[in-house]
């Protein structure tokens, strides 16, 4: 029971002993050393980042970057602890939606004055939205992500369904439901739609909030200080009632084991961008259609991104490294090739015609309908509550009641967090 | 003179040997239990959060606010209920089953080693692995349990996706996982019962059941009391299973006090409120232990 | 009331033969003592009678009933264990009432029986205590009480007094005898203490390595041991054994002891009993207490220098060496010799036992030729 208090004691100890640990940039005659923290991703992704940093260190002599990987599990907690102990690095990789959290805590400093003006011109709007908090830019990512509607060409053709290929022509919810109805009629033993619900947690918030947005709903008030009236407002409730029908009608299954589409057991899948190589390698004959919407269209976005911590003194050096990481040729291309992410800059896309050709839909969708998750200093609370609510709703819980509870809990935390 | 002072020192040491020997333990207790707990009590009356750490000026005394908030909304009540429900399910089940298994294993001379190992396995297996396995077993669609039920012409159950059954499932899984530990304690106690007692009882006419009821059970009384205590405390601390398997759902039905504490501290980063939960938890466990002491027979020297 | 009969009973534990071809009968109300060295199978025998172990072969009757397949609880026997085997969680009262409770006797009747037995054993003040609160002697009495309460047909005792100190042991011994005379039930009593065996037993059964050597009254076992083993096992200090050779010498015989001494003898009694020993190795057994200091009328037969002289109150045991044989003689303390002093003893021929080369008793009356 004292686990928590013990951790507080440890934090206190860290605070006490935080004197002069050489974690931060030191400018000596030899130049500046920047400590960089990144999450430990897939081996390919990790290796790519490693070589990008090495290339940076070779490219000049005034700044040296020292890359430190931290486990993805508990990465945020680790950064929080380091922040409280005053042991932050100079450059920090942040999971996109937590930008506001770290900005609010004072962990990150705004990039607006650090980066040369005009650098952000060709970035995806979703990346800029994700990186902004209270009108200032705190993070920029090398790549973005989204979710598309993957479908089995042969089976849908057999049902006489031709899913739309362009974002402008995306299915409305009714068209989507009609297609699902047809599929389940034609293939009673097939799961019509795979939703990867059992991944739980952040996936639910990320993948399904667009349904809410497409109906004009929101999680938080525009000022980010309140969930009451938004998360449980009529637009959100209506959207999630519609979404709940997916499960109620048996088109999707909250307990389906992930991998059904890949194994030919599902006709469609709301799959994240990195399913694409998996489905390709499974030699499926599949197509991609944009994320369907209710009143309008919306689609998921967001990924890991870079920020400069408040403890970084040599912002010029930081800017140099950030520009390298975000350089279309030096940073974006190798990183995106390693993890399949959507390049965050148009200039990089121009260097990757194959990407544009096979996954142009991702880019188009992010440009036109992509939207970042809510920017709030307590994103952890918001996503926990939202994902739990979504899970309950998928299992048939009363939508209004569930969202009322979630909104109340979120507001209690936001009230406490407010300045 | 020298010798005299040596004697004095020896005497002094003798008189205080008990205290001196327990000093290291007491210091550790102080450092890792009493001190943190005192800090927690203090923190529970403040608005301590990740923010007050970064901006010390914002730290404020908030009186009973954290407690009022806890008692005011239904979440704490639900978590309290869930926790107590789990304890009420698990303690009798796990202690009873542990005893039954111990009897079984003790009786099966040929298979004793094998059975003992197989019941103890889950105890030493990582909970993260077990969580994955049991999630699959409980899966309403393709899970083993429902496949079995369907094979027996019984209707499949929603298990973890039903607010009514989820906690039962976690309890079943926890009992299975933990029962080997208590079984080992019982087994050790049973093997220290002199066989002559059973022989005497058999000559007096006792059958297997009578032997169990009149010899084994009474001889295991102290052990049972101990096992009930530790099982209760373990059960109160339920966290990993709901954290990994159900994330407290569905509809908060597996949200326990510790899970709530964890959420409050690490998700919401409200350390003050989390501290308030930990204090309430401590008081609760204290209370329950106290009631248990009153209800249960006293331990005896045999 | 019941006697016990064993027919060709054998018991093996795996390859180990614990008992072999045991056959004897115990009369109703007899106090039957089983003695033998450690590991000879005494407890095994008792456990077979109790039903705690199954015979490997042979048959056991209690009364007229074949009990081979009857479980311990229905043999109507009671057993007192060496470690008492009292039930620690139960009070003395409940320990004694245990069997009655199992048999679901009406509570009042059962309580009455316990109280009666407790009175006999003077356990009344202890009834509400637990075994851990009792002394060894008190526990012993409770164990006895538990056995007695049910008034079984047969009592089985497995070295019940061996955990008590010497004084308490002799007190309990007479107590046991008193109780047994009173209860008049059959008792089988296992011990390796020969004093217990001699004082308690109506008859004594001597076992060696799972084989019964002799079943006879205490007097017989002591005075007419069937073989050297029995002869030397019972009696303390043990019987002196003088190996030698029996030779015919015209009218009579002479015994050539290994040390070189020659004892002229006559043997009377059925000739076929002893004739086969002629001109063969034999042993002469003489108990320490029949030895007398040599005197004018008693010519010295055994001589040597004193090695040890043990004083046990009124008498003393003198250890000396005659040739290769170490011998012991009992004498009055008044005549206690010094260490190293030369002593000479004689003994009456009627007090000597003759054993053949296989150690078997030779039935013959011995007399020395003057
Ligand atoms: N359950 C058993 N399994 C194997 N061997 C046994 C078992 N019980 C007894 N024995 C063996 O049988 C032999 C006789 O044992 P028993 O206990 O009857 O001896 P005892 O005469 O009572 O000896 P003591 O005077 O030391 O009690 C011993 O050699 C013993 O090792
Ligand atoms: Mg024995």
How would you sum up this structure, described in words?
The complex is a heterotrimer of chains A (419), B (302) and C (370). Chain A has 419 residues and is of the alpha+beta class. Chain A has 2 domains: 6-145 and 302-371, Periplasmic binding protein-like II (D-Maltodextrin-Binding Protein, domain 2), CATH 3.40.190; 147-299 and 378-416, D-Maltodextrin-Binding Protein, domain 2 (3-Layer(aba) Sandwich). Chain A has 16 helices and 15 strands. In chain A, 53% of the residues are buried. Chain B has 302 residues and is mainly α. Chain B has one domain: MetI-like fold (Orthogonal Bundle). Chain B has helices spanning 2-43, 50-54, 65-72, 74-107, 112-124, 127-138, 144-151, 166-191, 195-203, 208-219, 221-236, 240-246, 257-267, 271-295. By secondary structure, chain C is an alpha+beta fold. Chain C has a 7-stranded antiparallel β-sheet. Chain C has a 6-stranded mixed β-sheet with strand order 6-7-8-3-9-10, with helices on both faces. The chains are: A alpha+beta (419), B mainly alpha (302), C alpha+beta (370). Chains in contact: A-B, B-C. At the A-B interface, helix 1, helix 3, helix 15 and helix 16 of A face helix 1, helix 2, helix 13 and helix 14 of B. Residues 13, 16, 18, 36, 38-44, 192 of chain C line the site of adenosine-5'-triphosphate.
